[in-house]
From TrEMBL:
Belongs to the short-chain dehydrogenases/reductases (SDR) family. The keyword Oxidoreductase applies. It comes from Porphyra umbilicalis. InterPro entries: NAD(P)-bd_dom_sf. This is Uncharacterized protein. Transmembrane segments: none annotated. The keyword Acyltransferase does not apply.
Length: 239
């Protein structure tokens, strides 16, 4: 089983780093390049490494681990820059990942993106952050409808929607320590590996799955992965 994680980081804008010493494989895309160029560079690098094409290897799972964070509302001085940043870090990176999946994901494989619980409710002080992740949620549902056409047959598109992940950046913004409801990235990684390893227990195509954690006793958390209800079209009272 092979899994690819597309991770944007500072790099030469004309190259792509591939770490394949063991599984899963990690693909570091050049931040300085436009999305179309990122796809071209990544495709060339993966093809050169023996992936894709009529006889090349394909991945059981393709995951986008790139996201961003921005604070502020509509009157913030940098609201436009914040929106641009969130669209680039969350949406553009997800579209790049999806485009690569059309060529490198195997039939029945899993394509996964990172959303946020914050994008499911009004966020006047996290405007750009919520908008960027809401777009990813929509992308998940739209891509799910393209399985068997643009995406390989029997593939599953899933959005992981965490409340708060325990990351170095979040700790830096929180006096250097996690809160009780934060979820370890290892917990999410283990769940993704289980989903990628077989179809049993895997969420349905197009699912958004919330990730929450609660403390049940001293030093021990309980983690929950739940389907988010996303009806296509809900009609209520007329106006």
């Amino acid at each position: 089983m092979a899994a690819a994680a597309a991770v944007a980081e500072a790099a030469d804008p004309t190259s792509c780093r591939i770490r394949a010493a063991g599984e899963p494989l990690a693909l570091a895309l050049p931040v300085g390049a436009p999305p179309r160029s990122q796809v071209r560079i990544a495709t060339a690098s993966l093809m050169a490494a023996g992936y894709g094409g009529p006889d090349g290897h394909r991945f059981d799972a393709v995951l986008n681990a790139t996201t961003g964070f921005a604070v502020g509302g509509i009157q913030s001085e940098d609201v436009f820059e914040a929106v641009d940043f969130m669209v680039s870090s969350s949406l553009h990176s997800s579209v790049v990942t999806a485009r690569l999946a059309t060529a490198f994901l195997c039939p029945g494989g899993m394509l996964t993106f990172t959303g946020s619980v914050a994008a499911l409710s009004p966020q006047p002080k996290l405007l750009a952050f919520a908008v960027g992740h809401a777009a990813v949620h929509q992308l998940v549902r739209s891509l799910a409808a393209s399985v068997g056409a643009d995406l390989p047959a029997d593939a599953v598109v899933v959005g992981v929607v965490p409340e708060v992940l325990d990351t170095a950046m979040h700790r830096q913004l929180n006096r250097g320590r996690p809160d009780d409801n934060w979820t370890s990235c290892d917990v999410v990684a283990e769940k993704l590996f289980a989903w990628a390893s077989g179809t049993a227990g895997r969420p349905p195509n197009g699912a958004l799955v919330s990730v929450t954690s609660t403390v049940v006793e001293a030093g021990r958390q309980e983690h929950a992965f739940r389907l988010i209800n996303t009806p296509s079209y809900v009609q209520t009272a007329g106006y």
